[in-house]
Amino acid sequence: MPGPEQPRSATTELTAEDIERVHTAFFAQHNMSLLLDQLPVALWVKDAQGRYVGANQQWLDDEAFDSVADVAGKNDYDLFEAVRAAASIRRDWEMLDEGRPLITADIVERNGEAQTLRTTRMPIRDADQHIVGALGFTQATEPAPTEAPTPETPLEIDPITGVGVKAALIDRLSELIDSEEPGSLVLFSLDDHGIVSDSLGLEFGDMLLRAAARRLTTAFGPLLFRNREDEFAVVLPTTDPAQLADIGQMMLNKWRQALVIDGNHIYGSISVGMTSLADRTRASLVLQDAELAVNEAKRSGGSQVAVYSPEQRRNADDQLAQQMLVRRAVADKEFNLHWQPIVSSISGRTAGFEALLRWRPAGGSQILPAAEFFPFLERSGLIVQLGQFVIEEACRQHIAWREHNSIKAPIPVHVNVSARQFMSGLLATDIISTLENTGVSPDMLVIEVVESAVADPSMELLKDLAALRDAGVRVAIDNFGASHSSVSSVENLPIDIAKVDRRLASRIVAGNDEPIIDALGSVLSTQGITPIVQGVENELQMDWLQSRGWDLVQGYHVGAPLDPHDVTTLLTAHV
């Protein structure tokens, strides 16, 4: 039996085969792993993307993992809480960017005793000196002084996502502005965070934020900050439009992939807004510009990239000026009601009046129609306050007409109500209370709701509509026929009246769409719903409707909007 192989003489030349033999014995046969497991330090290895490749037993024991399989392929965000993960990733990035070792210290409490954990990070290079990963090892040293500062205070890190807070973002912007170095601010706003939080709860919303932060951190590392609730920011040292556009498009593409949250695949989108730091003297101005850009991206439907332009600032200034005017007008009671008659095409009698909101700004002679200011009322929520005024004023005006000696019969009044007014779930209660306080009979009030609001009705809207009808108030669907959901709208909702969309009336002249109008009339008749045709502007339309038996009409051909005094005159003469 041959004895053990004899070692070569020290004078023997070292060959490539000898090196390979030692390498195989030391690494391929896992002797290296055994050696590392015996070291009194916690050691880990990551690839260039921050994913764990390996770790020794000391690190696994310290972090309470059973084996390397538990961590392989995962990053710090997958394994640790957000603040710790973000700090680790920022340090990895700093070391890899510098291409040299980085030593950091953290104070932790172990077994009731404060310790300083000193971590050394080193880049791993391949044969061509390209960085392909990172090696880190941590060793506990003497107990830390209780007054010793931690490397990063909690005030610098967002507790939910682990990225920099807004104050740190402001500091970074200010530094770049002061240094006059080129730079750009890019905002990433999650288009669906509010919906997710409302549907699945705030806790799940926070999980969505953490998942988004993980995805953004893999691209931007320590450059990432949280600007506000559902918005992240990065400050990039470039103003090159092509490069910025590529970055924005890259993130849009990433969001086409689902975020995996607690086992759920969540698909969403982000809107991207960006602006240069050039010509700005304060960080707050840069942020305002970027916010305008991201808002422009959202107005375009989301999942878009928008770059700030001075036109956006002018538009924002104009909207702010209008906002101040409208708010003042609400406070100073500059709004009033005009009334457009609803007339029988067969008998010529006046069957009701629709209340139309009008605004005469203080000191002005021009009366503005609702189209000029209604969108802002909706966005700002002022429509709720002003909507209550309209209902109360309509009821008061009805009482004034009813008590006028020359008016022989009470006339129903129609009031438009927006979907926003139903959100509180108290609209029906408020309307019924107003009827009781003013003495208006419920059957003299018609509440009009636009068809788009009832296409996917909320529970609050359905409950309020049912409560109103139970109280005797009639409900009308406005702009009926404007969408493909028309038939299902009247079938599934408590509706008494359907006001046919004015665009259908305009097609009577062409003649080609007359069968469609007849079909709508048949649907309404089957459901027992009274139709009112809007937008009747000429004699041809009027004659056609009369010949088909359409009775109630509304439009400039039968009556333009009138102020209350003119309505009184009309009712005195014709009712």
Instruction: Indicate the percent of residues in helices.
Output: 40-55%
Mean pLDDT over the full residue set: 81
Poorly predicted runs: 1-10, 144-155
> Number of DSSP helices?
22
Tally of individual domains:
3
CATH topology of the largest domain: TIM Barrel
- The CATH architecture name of the largest domain reads Alpha-Beta Barrel
Structural class: alpha/beta
CATH class placement of the largest domain: Alpha Beta
Provide an overview of this structure.
The chain has 575 residues and is an alpha/beta fold. The protein has three domains: 17-152, Beta-Lactamase (2-Layer Sandwich), CATH 3.30.450.20; 156-308, 2-Layer Sandwich (Alpha-Beta Plaits); 321-574, TIM Barrel (Alpha-Beta Barrel). Helices cover 43% and strands 22% of the residues. An eight-stranded mixed β-barrel has the order 13-14-16-17-18-19-20-21, surrounded by five helices. Strands 2-1-5-4-3 form a five-stranded antiparallel beta sheet. It is elongated, with a radius of gyration of 36 Å. Mean pLDDT is 81; it is low at 1-10 and 144-155.
